[in-house]
Design a protein that fits this description.
This protein is α+β, with helices and mostly antiparallel strands and 563 residues long. The protein contains 18 helices and 27 strands. It starts with 20 loop residues before the first helix and ends with a helix. The structure holds adenosine-5'-triphosphate (ATP) and magnesium ion (MG) (3 copies). InterPro entries: aa-tRNA-synt_IIb, aa-tRNA-synth_II, aa-tRNA-synth_II/BPL/LPL, Anticodon-bd, Anticodon-bd_dom_sf, Pro-tRNA-ligase_IIa, Pro-tRNA-synth_IIa_bac-type, Pro-tRNA-Synthase_IIa_type1.
Amino acid sequence: MRLSQFHLATVKEVPADAEIASHRLMLRAGMIRKLASGLYTWTPLGLRVLRKVENVVREEMNRAGAIELLMPAVQPKELWEETGRWEKFGGQLLKIRDRKDQEFCFGPTHEEVITDFARNELKSYKQLPVNFYQIQTKFRDEIRPRFGVMRAREFLMKDAYSFHLSPESLGDTYGAMYQAYSRIFERLGLSFRAVQADTGAIGGNASHEFQVLADSGEDAIAFSDDSDYAANIEKAEALAPAIQRPAPQAPLKRVDTPRQKTIAEVSAFLGVSPQQCIKTLLLRGREGLVALCLRGDHELNEVKAGKLAELADEPVLATEEEILAATGTRPGFIGPVGLPETIPVIVDRSAAVLADFVCGGNADGTHYTGANWERDARTTRVDDIRQVVEGDPSPDGHGTLRLARGIEVGHIFQLGQKYAQALGATVLDDQGKAQVMLMGCYGIGVSRIVAAAIEQSHDEAGIIWPETMSPWRVAVCVINPKNLPDVRDAAENLYRKLEERGIETVLDDRGLRPGQMFADLELIGVPHRVVVSERGLAAGTLEYRRRSESENRAITEDELFTL
Ligand code: ATP
Ligand code: MG
Ligand code: MG
Ligand code: MG
């Protein structure tokens, strides 16, 4: 690729909401452009990297015997009603209508569609086991899209679904996927851990997440260096009771605060409907503004948790006991101090309170300050439990536990019969009897991996790509191509030779000053850079710099070809 004929558009300034390195660097390098919240265009540069990841994933899925297909992004409501998820999935499900007023969703995942496919396609046990996958765009209306493509609303996922007659067969494919995932992340040069994850509401036997180790990760994992024990924090909590010790609670102080607002008062104050009001409050709760609960004699009592579930993204309302334990008072309203009108927000576990919140009952003078929850449960909890857990014996008895933050880049799951049962996906067994199939599902966040790799590998100058992910392997820089035809011809020549050898090369023939040219190439992270200059031509060498090193050295063409 000649850079003069490519669309490279690096930028100096990035918006303040780009909080983490990968988000900033992807914007600065011009890999992505924001269209709207959680929606990004992948520029030609960004797409080169995304395709690299996609190809590694595809190669390893094929190697593991999975078969590629492609399912629609838009999915009919009726299918989701068969599994009950039209209602249950929550606010992440983007619901849309066509011109005939038929309802659809933009798929956040594809269990329904693949199981429908399977119930039509698979008739006999002889067709099993089979593992279908696709690499496809998902949409999840994330409550808080952030960190660029790391937590986007539209993102690229590889999702695979396997079908079986027996748990043993499911176990085998699960194991093969575990191996394939390990190979994928190794090939992509990521430092990662496979951790046990909770199977939660879905049930089933096994689930593992693949977590890239990075301080900016939203997840936390506990692991032992002396054994294979590794679990995400939710799972580790269940296994290691020590982790469940509650965070220390600051003493509560009684304050003389007037009765706080009812939902009717708040909705009048904000000028929006009560429904909209509750929705807003829920959102703000997610953002850490926190908290009210459904108790006492105000009108919110009428809003039952079930109703709230329709409005919120998997709301987990705190129970009365939890509120009591955390605040020392029976739940009424809890609201942040300092707002002119205290705005009630629903308590949920992922958005519990920091210090200095008022809590209390519905009568004047029954409020307290100092209610001390956590703002971002995952984040704060890691620090709280670090002291408690680190150094504790590993639950498997080998070595001691350590804690780290992680970015979830993959997730594999033994689903069992949940979806096949709901959708009636059966095959005939060798006795001619209809049997409900067992399923596994296996996801990889293809676009998230790009950001995760940058989190793991960058410096002040920019991205440092692992070789397998880089947009190009080698950059050939031409100094002053306009005025020095010999230099230009030599660079063109070298560029051609590299390409002939199958080494993906970018020729920087834009005629920029060396400083500008190098800054761009360092920012976009090309692993190997050579400079063709008058001086080098005379000496028969190239000035070479590895992106991960800080010194130049002179090398010959042949040395370059064998890098
Ligand atoms: P998270 O816990 O980060 O919300 P998840 O557990 O909801 O992720 P899965 O349903 O397991 O995600 O989906 C499979 C993979 O898709 C995840 O492991 C992750 O890599 C990726 N993924 C999920 N949500 C997003 C998102 N909003 N943006 C980018 N990638 C995502
Ligand atoms: Mg999620
Ligand atoms: Mg997750
Ligand atoms: Mg997951």
